[in-house]
Amino acid sequence: QVQLVESGGGLVQPGGSLRLSCAASFAIYYTSIGWFRQAPGKEREGVSCISSRDSITYYADSVKGRFTMSRDNAENTLYLQMNSLKPEDTAVYYCATLRSCSGSGPERPGYWGQGTQVIVSS
Predict the structure, then answer these.
(1) Which residues contact 25 (CB under 8 A, 6 or more apart)?
(2) What is the SS3 assignment for 29?
């Protein structure tokens, strides 16, 4: 069964850091996969993604330079290292399998994780 299990969210102060994890039940090296977030009262947006075989990596302008995505193919786990967090980063963060990851962002998500909440507040 295809499963994505997320963890690592929590409450942090502005300027702090968190690392989110997304553990998959399948070989993610052969799958495009990415991170999304949904802030209170806002639409879900693509944050970052990586293509199959690590060919393409994408970051939204709002997180570029602060967030770093990585994939541990041996452990089938996707990570999102979030540094210099801002209150506007507050959201529920989701990982999802993708049809593709291009220079314009994640495309056509398929399977989703349950989400993990990130709150950035002093």
Answers:
(1) 1, 2, 3, 4, 76
(2) helix
Cα torsion 77, 90, 44, 113: sign: positive
Q: Which of 31, 26, 7, 36 is nearest to 75 (CA)?
A: 26
Would you state the structure tokens that stand for residue 48, as one six-digit string?
Answer: 């970052």
Asked if 116 and 37 touch (Cβ cutoff 8 Å), the reply is no
Q: What is the pLDDT of residues 37-81, one digit of tens each?
A: 999 999 999 999 999 877 889 999 999 999 999 999 899 999 999
Q: Which residues contact 55 (CB under 8 A, 6 or more apart)?
A: none
User: Where on the phi/psi map is residue 109: left (φ > 0), alpha (ψ -120 to 50), or beta?
Assistant: beta
Answer for the pair 90, 120: CB distance below 8 angstroms, yes or no: yes
C-alpha distance across the termini of the chain, in Å: 40
